[in-house]
Amino acid sequence: MNTPSDDSVTAPAVLILSQIRTAEMQPALAAIERHFPGADLRFLADPSSVERHVTQEGWFPDLAVIFQHWPGEYTATDADRLLTLLPLARWICIRGAWCESDGRNGTAWPDAICVPARSAAPRIRLERSVLDGTANALPLTASRDENFTFEHMSPHNDTPQVAVGKSRKVTTLTNDAELRSVLHDLLAASGFNSERSLEDDSASDAFVWDADPISADRCDELRRIHAAHPHAVIVAISTMAHPEDIEVLSACGAADVVPKLHFAEMLPRSLQAALTMSGTSTD
Questions:
Q1: In degrees, to the nearest 5, what angle opens at C-alpha 87 toward C-alphas 143 and 127?
Q2: N or C: which end of the chain has fewer CB within 10 A?
Q3: What H or E segment, with its residue span, contains residue 231?
Q4: Which residues of 244-267 are buried (b: 16+ CB within 10 A; e: fewer)?
């Protein structure tokens, strides 16, 4: 790890190990760029390249991120070699949709560092907090339960307060009464004017739409909502939207797709970003 200093705190060194660049990993890359502005960011294609940078250049990343696109892309020998080479780095292995079975059928990387691509952004933010000294580090030997607690019960995952300009009206559309109640409370706590249905005739600035289960009928419903409210932002939430699902939902009118497992942190930020992009979030 870089020698502690003011510069190393504000601009850490970040390694991204990836053999290819795919659209699936773009949200994770965007999160790295957002939470590590000005970082010494290096893309390397294989473990041997990492060894060369460390041994020949004396470059020691503070955060090492693996983009894993398919099972077996990296071997247990690769993982042991890199973890031993950089024992002080923080590690994240971001796994793509083809790696859903990893963890059940074995994986080269410790469970404590593995997250699916759709859940990478909150973990990246947490690791920045660890490097800044404002959150406790999760050890490589942590169990799955400890990993879940780290990601979902950290004090750094409190409900974000977003600046929404005027109190924007957001309508929640889901048949799950409990989920609707939770979303209503979350949005209200985040500064939005939350509505629970379309019964109110006043125009909504945004909709939170439950996409599950993703199907042709659900996509038709999304198209109808988008056509009826062309100036409103629609953020879909889904349990397990794969890249192809996100592409379809986006084509049907969704401005963003947020994983249900992380909506408490990601949804308010997603709504604010979408409202800002649409030009409806300012007074």
A1: 60
A2: C
A3: none
A4: ebbebbeebbbbbbbbbbbbbbbb
- pLDDT tens readout for residues 67-76: 999 988 999 9
Question: Rounded distance, CA 138 to CA 140, Å?
Answer: 7
Q: Which two tokens mark 12? A: 């850490």
Residue that wins the pLDDT comparison between 277 and 181? 181
What pTM value is reported for the model? 0.69
Q: Which of 217, 205, 207 is nearest to 278 (CA)?
A: 205
Backbone angles phi, psi at 162, to 5 degrees: -105, 150
Q: Which residue do the tokens 């409806």 mark?
A: 280
d(CA 223, CA 89) in angstroms, rounded, equals: 45
pLDDT tens, 88-130? 999 999 998 888 777 666 678 998 999 988 888 889 999 999 9
In the block, residue with structure tokens 């894993």:
68
The residues near 176 (Cβ < 8 Å, ≥ 6 apart) are 210
Distance separating the N- and C-terminal Cα atoms of the chain: 45
Token reading at 183: 């979303």
Which of helix, strand or coil describes residue 223?
A: helix
From residue 12, alpha-carbon distances to 60, 121, 165 in Å are: 10, 17, 33
Question: Cis link prior to 213 (omega < 30° from 0)?
Answer: yes
Structure tokens at 203: 């125009």
Cα dihedral 262/265/267/272 (nearest 10): -160
What is the reported pLDDT for 234?
A: 96
Q: What is the pLDDT of residue 7?
A: 40
Cα distance between residue 19 and residue 108, in whole Å: 16
